[in-house]
């Protein structure tokens, strides 16, 4: 029983070990410095380059846009479902949101490819609809169930007495929600957003399918970008095992793992500190 | 009253935003159902693909996905349930359990593509399983392990303490207590949570991309060391890698719909089971 | 204080701790066989904790420890190598909140015998019937043995729990406020039952109800802040307590 329970620990270690194992050859040749530069040109007749800055900027751009969308929509929906919606509405809304969490990312990506990206192309008069914005919109949508579920927990666990005290002082329901309830639940909501961001950064298929996959540093939402996840997915199929390119992709994986690990730990700390779970 | 009018309009705005999210979800499902339905027929479901997937059916992809999911359950369910039972019933809370919990949280946050890399490194290359059902199943199993552990533990925690104390006070051993007076009441919840995890496994693409999925393989697998096609990967290929992606759009929609149905069945079953058992077991 | 030569239970220099918080302080006490001993005292004074020492139910709480000893039939139940299962079989317990398992009435009563290896149907039925009769609930449930126990009334549930404890044939019965959640009529039935059960069992009962203690018990122990303040014949305690704190408590002048 305790052996089974240690499985999680063992797996985490195995993940680190096997990522490192495949990544290590890169350190001696061409060296880690190579990673910290701004050109990702893994296949080239002259000189291959494995600078991951464009991949990081791609992930960051997409994540930032998605988060900007995610925060208002996620929090507002959570507030609505937990504080405003009528009983029967809740019964319908919650399963519906959960269904969204269940739609496979490749299906969302497919929808983005054939429905959303033409819309974005037309709307903003672009050459291509495969942009950072397209990916971000879909990612925000995918992360919404996480944000709603966890924020809602946090909102629900705000003591009734706070709300009643506020209402008894003559505050309106709206004032109570935005002055008392939401601030009291804020740590939980922040953690929810961070966990949502974790999902966004780690998501692969959607960005692979709709962000256009151009490995260049850009902060323009209407540009095509290439994220870390998409890079691994797109290129791993074609590399020779053990090659420099192959090792470089494992480095990208390690960096991804570290980022999401950090986000998760901080989010859990926030959650635990405020006893939201 | 001026104030209540503005308050009302804020409420309506909030409501509008919430329902627009719902509308988008609804629209995605609607779009895929409407455009996917015409493609779905017996031949599509039970036929083999032809001319690199431009024609014919998707049977190997369906079968492949079913095998992968089944394999993932076989590995993750016993492991996850045993972990949960240990954490919730046996372990003294201390350093070891804290480490396990940290590991679970970490695992839950690992991006699926990183699971793919890991599966590639461990199963495909190091253990020499190659791109195969077994590599893919293990990778998926590890990916859904946290979901299974967390929801199983929740189900165990939901069984009242009095069930344990009452049994122990009668002289039952710890294991008898768990086996006879805790597990039977927790199992439905444990399965429900696990179904959700399994649904996720069925729809995942990134991990199988690197560990099992075949581009085009118009036959059924004969052993767990075979490569297979899988629905999510097939959809990805048809939508992005196919030379005539536009032309095979109906096939893409058909595949998307089949995948959606498969995953939604898991999810609806879990949601339904949960509310059923919640009503049945009120203590 | 009372002292018996042939006590069923002997507690010596018992200290108990929840982590760093001490809940019982240096308790010495002997408990007489086939008598009812009542534990009284204000909320949080350690009655339940003390009661749970006798069947080692405190063991299941993480981070607890104790010093001193608890002897049952002159054997230290906390000594290494003691069979806890056998101990708990010998020392039955009824909880404050009646806690029938969400199973049928029959399965509840049969739970103990079954885990202790009784398989034979007829034998099992006999045990169940006998313990339900002993717990004075047989007449009410004999036609609904297959029904879920959660459907019984509160008083019936509690008597079923007593029956469940009796079915493993204990020698000692621990009762933690067994009637505190019941209406007066059900309470009276439980009290009557205790009166009959003491012919066969050594009973230790925790209660907040002074009348109840004086009605059902032979001896009464008054606890305050984890310490045993006074222990004597129930008559003596209620009529003429030696210590002022005891008097204040039983007369309701407690602050
Ligand atoms: N599981 C526990 N962990 C930590 N402290 C506990 C625990 N159970 C009880 N205590 C503490 O030990 C002390 C004695 O508690 P106990 O339950 O024995 O009191 P009691 O006399 O039975 O009270 P009541 O009449 O309310 O049932 C209290 O201060 C209580 O807070
Ligand atoms: Mg108590």
Q: What do you see in this structure?
A:
The complex is a heterotrimer of chains A (about 280), B (about 280) and C (about 260). Chain A has a single domain (about 55-275), classed as MetI-like fold (Orthogonal Bundle). Helices cover about 75% and strands about 0% of the residues of chain A. Chain A contains eleven helices and two strands, in the order ααββααααααααα. In chain A, strands 1-2 form a two-stranded antiparallel ribbon. Chain A is globular and about 75 Å long. In chain A, about 50% of the residues are buried. Chain B has one domain (about 40-280): MetI-like fold (Orthogonal Bundle). Chain B is built from eleven helices and two strands; from the N terminus they run ααββααααααααα. Chain B is globular and about 70 Å long. The N and C termini of chain B lie far apart (about 45 Å). Chain C is of the alpha/beta class. Chain C has ten helices and ten strands. A six-stranded mixed β-sheet of chain C has the order 6-7-8-3-9-10. A four-stranded antiparallel β-sheet of chain C has the order 2-1-4-5, with no helix packed on it. The two termini of chain C are about 25 Å apart. Chains A and B meet through α1, α3, α4, α5 and α8 of A and α1, α3, α4, α5 and α6 of B. Adenosine-5'-triphosphate binds next to β2 and α1 of chain C.
Break the fold down into its secondary structure elements and pairings.
The complex is a heterotrimer of chains A (277), B (283) and C (255).
Chain A: H1 2-23, H2 25-28, E1 40-41, E2 49-50, H3 53-84, H4 87-102, H5 105-123, H6 132-156, H7 160-168, H8 173-202, H9 205-210, H10 228-236, H11 244-273
Antiparallel strand pairs in A: 1-2
Helix pairs in contact in A: 1-11, 3-6, 3-8, 4-6, 5-6, 6-8, 7-8, 8-11, 10-11
Chain B: H1 2-36, H2 42-46, E1 49-50, E2 55-56, H3 59-90, H4 95-109, H5 112-126, H6 133-157, H7 161-169, H8 174-203, H9 206-211, H10 231-241, H11 249-280
Helix pairs in contact in B: 1-11, 3-6, 3-8, 3-10, 4-6, 5-6, 6-8, 7-8, 8-11, 10-11
Chain C: E1 7-18, E2 21-32, E3 36-40, H1 47-51, E4 64-72, E5 75-76, H2 84-90, E6 91-94, H3 105-115, H4 121-134, H5 138-141, H6 154-166, E7 172-176, H7 184-197, E8 202-206, H8 210-216, E9 219-224, E10 227-233, H9 234-239, H10 244-250
The structure holds adenosine-5'-triphosphate (ATP) and magnesium ion.
